[in-house]
Design goal:
The complex is a heterodimer. Chain A is an alpha+beta fold. Chain A has 18 helices and 19 strands. Chain A has a 6-stranded mixed sheet. Chain B has 17 helices and 5 strands. In chain B, a hairpin with a 2-residue loop joins strand 1 and strand 2. Classes of the chains: A alpha+beta, B mainly alpha.
């Protein structure tokens, strides 16, 4: 009977090899997939069990965790939830997390690669691991000015420091109070989430980085940049400026805002930008061609699906394969051209920084719980969008817009502001979006800003970028320059 | 004259004592680490706990020195280590349950069951001087096994718990008779098969290279098959059904060396289980939960879904290679973390490394059992030891395989580690039987002198009376 006994012993051995294999499959090969399954609350519980790091603006924590006497151990709190909702996002047991709470989660939980040595030390000393503090680039005054300026209008404001790419303000309205979602009362948190999810204006989705809008006339900056970069145009070059431009291959025409003329016909490039002359820019777009427009747009950041600040930014679009009428419409920021508010801030920031576009970023410093700096974001060049000469020419043209053009509402006494308005048509039955993008001071720019007010905000059909959006940009610029 | 010279055999009691110290150290260290991991303090009663465990372990060690001096020296320490790891894990889960206001106190009860188990194992070693005595009770054991299996179906004492009818409750004390039935069946199969092995092995036609059994010899296997399908259908217990049938097929193969039995047996079981899965929703649900575990609809099903399985997988995955450490995981997020899914709890807190170490303990235990079977000279002992070793291995496979999604989840619990008195007692009795047989297997072959009597040398029979088994022990 010994032969079958030995064989049975071998079978048993094989059974255990299978078990070791399956355990390895679960605990090693599939571990990442299982750990990231949304139904796996373990990671969340473990995160809650440790002190999560704060999110800091200007030395003050706007999101922080305090110990509480419940199974989770720590309660996430937001000091000014609505003001900073587009920055912090939310951190919720039942609804997960968003924005910085999500994108900087590794640092906040203390699990990031940059905190490797801190973790090793905690392991050796037996210290309870704590998350790191994430210090943002946000300027509290600029953020507050943007929130106040938008008020109850739906829209977004993004302000960037042109020389570095630091994001100084990141606002999306309507915002939301993240405290309502962070409560450990799971039923209340679920209800709050569902209410916000169904609320008009989609508060949970950041208009600043996750929504695209037709950029309208603010896109003329890109068209002008393409023209100047081609070497065939200067600000003094003249363009035809008819009341209506016949689009080639169609019976359609492009008119100017309000059906008015552009003052003169022909018109210089600088004046065309100053008064935002659609017909002149449509013709200019046809002259430089769709390929040159797209190349220029991409240098400013369009068509880039991988941008992170560290939250993912949806890509702004300048479509490929445009025919002539589409090109003409695209040149004035219509047709299928779409931009996020942060993208239009990047356009201004690039022009302000001598054509050098810096990658926008929101996390300045990561500091471990014992205040050791573990990571400092270094400014990075995103692209050289235009030459310094083109940037200088565009700056002068944008100064003209604010001094005596469509953007006079952004004037600040004693400060030279360079800007561009936009009033982007949406659907026929809805008022246009109001845009304004600007930077200041023009000779030594410290802030570039883009403001979007959806569907004209409180002014509705009467709204233009100059009326509705420019004053908000002005307030944000003043806040940055004053602080 | 060809004689086998009796050579000095190391009884191994010294080795056993050394290994026992190691096993106790593992158990007590785990207990201390649980205390530190959950409350940041060494448990206040660690001395009492350590002493208590040491008294039990050394006590049965002394029983072995007295009654089975040649018993295998590895079996007992491995059992003590597994039992200690299980107690530490249950103690740890108690903390989690207590912190969340759930019923707890499992560790204290398991500790009492451990003491009872060790005492019973010692009693078996003391009272059962020769395992061959059990052969006299072949049919008694068979009937007892059947009765124990059917006990949960008796109205009044049988209890339907968590969808399975495998519990019996008499006077406030509940137990799972199937855990004891498996021992009874092992004895019955060993006794039956050692008598009928020739007929089962040699008669019958040969088809396609397979030696098929005769129709009349198929009777017993069909009876056992019907019984295990009945367990599956009436008691809704896939695990026990698999365990009984697997045990029978394995022992049939051991007795006859005929692969045809294994193939017929496996086919019968697959057909039976397949029919049951299509005909009975509770069996089908188990398969569904296994095959489509990550399907949201299956996961979210309030009852009979894959929630427990998948939560167990989540726990094990979060443990990764080295585990969270004692007290730092969340095993309490898995239903029945202290019993059916204690393997997931161990995987979470001790990691893949710890889980593999525990699996190796089971493997070594089973292999020492097989070694005992090979070493022992009588056919009944060979079959019984082989069967008991296989039960431990198969039960571990069915449980761990269920938790790691190799096979559907069954209602069985991990031997020695999982919470549950019946299982602990029954498995300690198995260990006692294996120790008893291994004593016989490793005892110096004084029988040689019995076989070739020399005048003047007193006959010392190894195990008292010497039944007819010597001829049965072909090997």
């Amino acid at each position: 009977m010994n032969t079958p006994l030995r064989r049975l012993a071998t079978v048993v051995m094989a059974m255990f090899v299978v078990l070791i294999g399956s355990a390895t499959w679960v605990q090693y090969a599939q571990a990442d997939k299982l750990n990231n399954d949304t139904r796996n609350v373990r990671g969340l519980y473990r995160e809650y069990g440790n002190a999560r790091g704060p999110i800091v603006v200007g030395g003050k924590a706007i999101a922080f965790s305090t110990p509480v006497d419940d199974p989770y151990g720590y309660q996430r709190q937001y000091t000014d939830g609505t003001t900073y909702s587009a920055v912090t996002g939310f951190y919720s047991i039942v609804n997960g997390k968003s924005e910085l709470e999500n994108a900087a989660n590794a640092a906040l939980t203390g699990k990031g690669d940059q905190l490797f040595f801190t973790r090793i030390r905690d392991l050796i000393t037996g210290r309870k691991p704590e998350g790191a503090a994430v210090e943002t680039t946000i300027n509290a005054a600029a953020q507050a000015a943007a929130v106040a300026g938008l008020g109850d209008q739906q829209g977004a404001v993004v302000a960037i420091e042109p020389s570095t790419g630091k994001i100084l303000a990141l606002v999306s309205t309507p915002g939301f109070d993240a405290n309502a979602l962070a409560t450990h009362d799971t039923a209340a948190a679920s209800a709050a989430y569902q209410a916000l999810d169904a609320a008009p204006g989609n508060p949970l989705r950041s208009n600043a980085i996750k929504e695209r809008y037709a950029p309208g006339s603010t896109f003329k900056l890109v068209t002008a940049a393409a023209a100047l970069e081609s070497g065939e145009y200067t600000p003094a070059s003249t363009l035809p400026a008819p009341l209506a431009l016949d689009l080639p291959q169609t019976t359609a025409t492009i008119g100017n805002f309000g059906g008015e003329g552009c003052g003169t016909d022909p018109i210089t490039l600088a004046d065309a930008l100053r008064v935002s002359c659609n017909t002149a820019f449509a013709q200019l777009g046809l002259n430089v061609g769709a390929d040159a427009l797209r190349t220029q747009a991409e240098k400013f950041g369009f068509n880039d699906p991988g941008q992170t600040i560290p939250m993912g930014v949806v890509q702004s679009i300048f479509p490929a394969d445009l025919n002539a009428p589409q090109t003409a419409q695209s040149a004035i920021g219509q047709h299928d051209v779409q931009a996020t508010p942060i993208e239009m801030a990047m356009v201004s920031a690039a022009i302000a920084n001598d054509g050098r576009l810096m990658t926008p970023y929101l996390v300045d410093t990561v500091r471990s719980a014992d205040l050791t700096t573990v990571q400092v974001t270094k400014p990075q060049l995103y692209s050289t969008a235009v030459s310094p000469a083109t940037a200088a020419a565009l700056t002068q043209m944008m100064i003209g817009v604010v001094q005596s053009g469509t953007g006079t509402a952004a004037q600040i006494p004693g400060v030279q502001v360079a800007g561009k308005t936009g009033t982007a048509q949406t659907t026929a039955d809805q008022p246009p979006h109001a845009w304004f993008t600007a930077f200041a001071p023009a000779d030594n720019p410290r802030v570039a800003v883009a403001v979007l007010v959806e569907h004209g905000g409180n002014l509705g059909n009467e709204a233009t970028g100059g009326h509705v959006a420019a004053p908000i940009a002005k307030a944000v610029i003043e806040a940055v320059l004053g602080s | 004259m060809a004689t086998v010279q009796p050579h000095a055999v190391r009884a191994g009691r010294g080795v056993e004592l050394g290994l026992l110290v190691l096993a106790l150290a593992i158990g007590v260290a785990s207990y201390v680490l649980v205390g530190i991991g959950t409350t940041d303090k060494v448990p206040p009663d660690v001395l009492e706990y350590g002493l208590g465990m040491a008294v039990l372990a050394v006590g049965i060690h002394l029983v072995l020195r007295w009654r089975a001096p040649y018993a295998d020296p590895v079996i007992l320490p491995i059992t003590v280590a597994l039992n200690g790891i299980g107690l530490a894990m249950i103690y740890r889960i108690d903390f989690a349950y207590e912190a969340r206001g759930r019923p707890h106190g499992f560790a204290d009860r398991q500790l009492v069951w451990t003491a009872i188990s060790v005492v019973l194992a010692a009693a078996v070693l003391i009272l059962l001087r020769d395992h061959r005595t059990l052969r006299r009770y072949t049919y008694t054991a068979g009937i007892a096994g059947l009765a124990l299996t059917l006990l949960p179906l008796v109205p009044g004492i049988g209890v339907l718990l968590n969808g399975a009818r495998i519990w019996v409750r008499v006077g406030g004390v509940g137990f799972q008779p199937a855990e004891f039935a498996k021992i009874a069946f092992a004895i019955f199969f060993a006794g039956y098969l050692v008598t009928h092995r020739d007929a089962l092995a040699l008669a019958g036609p040969k088809v396609l290279g397979l030696h098929l059994p005769r129709a009349q010899d198929l009777g017993p296997i069909l009876v056992v098959w019907a019984a295990s399908v009945a367990v599956l259908v009436l008691e809704r217990d896939l695990g026990t059904s698999l365990l009984f049938f697997g045990l029978f097929v394995a022992m049939l193969y051991l007795a006859t060396e005929r692969l045809s039995w294994v193939i017929i047996g496996l086919l019968l079981f697959v057909v039976g289980a397949g029919l049951a899965a299509t005909a009975f929703s509770h069996v089908g649900a188990r398969f569904d939960a296994w095959l489509h575990a990550f399907d949201p609809a299956v996961f979210d099903k309030a009852y009979g879904g894959s929630g427990q399985l998948v939560r167990g997988l989540f726990g094990m995955a979060s443990g990764g290679l080295f585990g969270t450490g004692w007290g730092d995981g969340r095993p309490d997020l898995v239903p029945f973390a202290e019993s059916d899914f204690i393997v997931a709890s161990l995987g979470e807190e001790l990691g893949l490394t710890g889980l593999i170490a525990i699996l190796m303990c089971y493997l070594i235990l089973a292999q020492r059992g097989f070694r005992t079977a090979i070493g022992v000279r009588d056919g009944f002992g060979k079959l019984l030891a082989g069967g008991l070793a296989f039960i431990v291995a198969l039960q571990t496979f069915v449980v761990v395989g269920g938790v790691t999604r190799v096979i559907p989840v069954t209602g069985l619990v991990t031997p020695f580690i999982a919470y549950g008195g019946s299982s602990l007692v029954a498995n300690w009795v198995i260990v006692a039987l294996l120790l008893r047989i291994s004593d016989e297997a490793r005892r110096p072959a004084r029988n040689v002198r019995v076989a070739t009597p020399i005048a003047g040398v007193p006959q010392v029979a190894a195990g008292g009376d010497q039944p007819t088994e010597v001829i049965g022990g072909i090997s």
